[in-house]
Amino acid sequence: MHLTLVGIDVHVGGRPFIEGLNLQVGSGRFIGLVGPNGSGKSTMLKTIYRVLRPTAGAVFLGDRSTASMSGREVARELAVMAQEPPSEADLTVYEMVSLGRLPYLTALRRSSDDDEQTVCDVMGRVGVGHLADRSWETLSGGEKQRVLLARAFAQQAPVLILDEPTNHLDIRHQLDLLRIVKDSGVTVVAALHDLNLAAHYCDEVVVIDVGAVVAHGPPDDVLVSSVLMPVFGIEVDRVVHPRTGVTSLLFSPRRVPTPADPTWTTRRSAATDLTTSENKECT
Questions:
Q1: What are phi and psi of 112, to 5 degrees?
Q2: DSSP string of 8-57?
Q3: pLDDT digits (tens, 9 = 90+) for 189-244
Q4: Could you give the domains of the chain?
Q5: Which ranges of 184-261 does DSSP label H, i.e. alpha helix?
Q6: 47-54 CB contacts, 8 Å cutoff, 24+ apart
Q7: What is the pTM assigned to this prediction?
Q8: How many Cβ atoms are within 10 Å of 135's Cβ, its own excluded?
Q9: CB 155 within 8 A of CB 75
Q10: Three-state SS for 129?
Q11: Who contacts 173 (Cβ-Cβ below 8 Å, separation ≥6)?
C-alpha cells in the first residue's frame, strides 16, 4: 500500500512545526527519515498515525484520507512502533504482542487459534519467543523494542511506522531488527539517527530539517556532503565495506558554524524553537 502526504502543515500552540510538507512513499518501499534533533521527524510521524492533527493538508493510505477512516480501519492498515514505549503494563510479553490483534476483534469476533498462531509466529520471527511468559516490566530497553516490533507485526498491516526503532539495541540487534523490517515486504517509514543504517537498509532516504523536506531519493544520491553539510554540518566520505561490498559512510565536521554565518543564524534559531517547544524545560 502506498502512503501519501499532501500539503501538510502542523502548528502546535500557534507555532509552525511543519509547513507545506509533501511526500510520496511507494508500496513496499523502505523509507528512512533523517534529520537533526528538533527537525520535525517525530512530528511528521505522529501526524501520519494521527496523534497530531494537521492544521492543513491530508494523509492518504492508498486512496483514502486517514481523516475519513475510523480508528479501527487505520489500525488495520497502519502499524506503529513509537519512540515512547508503555512505561507500566501489568502484562506478559505474549499478552503485549497479542494487543496487535485488537483491530480485528469485536464482541462477535473473539481471539481465535489463527490469532494465537499469528502472535507466536511474529514473536519467533523477531526473536522474542523465549520471553513469552516474562513480565513486560522486567524487560530491558532493547527487549522491549523487539517486543513492540513483534506487536506491530501482529497487526499484519501493510504500512509500518517506526520512530527510532534501534534505540536501546546493541549493534547485533540493530542489524537484525532492520533486516527483519526490510524483509517484511511492507511499506515502511522509519526515523533513524544512524545514517549508515539508513544507507544500508533503506530504499530511499528523506532528509528533513526545520519541518521541511530538504532532499528525497536513493541513499547514494542523498547521503552526500552537498546535502548533509547544510543540515548536519558534516562532510561525508564514501568507502566500500571489505566484507559486504556495501558503501559505508565516514563523517567529519568540516567547520564549526558561528553566528557570523547567516545560514547558521536562520536555521539554528528556527530549530531551537522547535526543540524547546517539543521538550519540557527544566528550571
A1: -115, 175
A2: EEEEETTEEEEEEEEEEE-TT-EEEEE--TTSSHHHHHHHHTTSS--SEE
A3: 999 999 999 999 999 999 999 999 999 999 999 999 999 999 999 999 999 888 88
A4: 3-278 (3.40.50.300)
A5: 195-201, 219-222, 225-232
A6: 47/5, 47/8, 47/10, 47/18, 48/3, 48/5, 48/78, 48/161, 48/189, 49/74, 49/78, 49/80, 49/161, 50/74, 52/10, 52/12, 54/8, 54/9, 54/10, 54/18
A7: 0.85
A8: 14
A9: yes
A10: helix
A11: 142, 145, 146
Which residue's C-alpha cell is 493538508?
57
Give the burial class of 160: count Cβ atoms within 10 A of its Cβ; 0-12 exposed, 13-18 middle, 19 or more buried: buried
Cα separation, 282 vs 50, in Å, equals 28
pLDDT score at 260: 53
Q: Which of 35, 53, 92, 68 is nearest to 234 (CA)?
A: 35
Distances (CA, A) of 58 to 65, 221, 251: 6, 28, 36
Residue 101, number of CB atoms within 10 A of its CB: 19
The answer to whether the CB of 65 falls within 8 A of the CB of 48 is: no
Q: What is the pLDDT of residues 94-138, one digit of tens each?
A: 999 999 999 998 766 777 889 999 999 999 999 999 999 999 999
pLDDT score for 185? 93
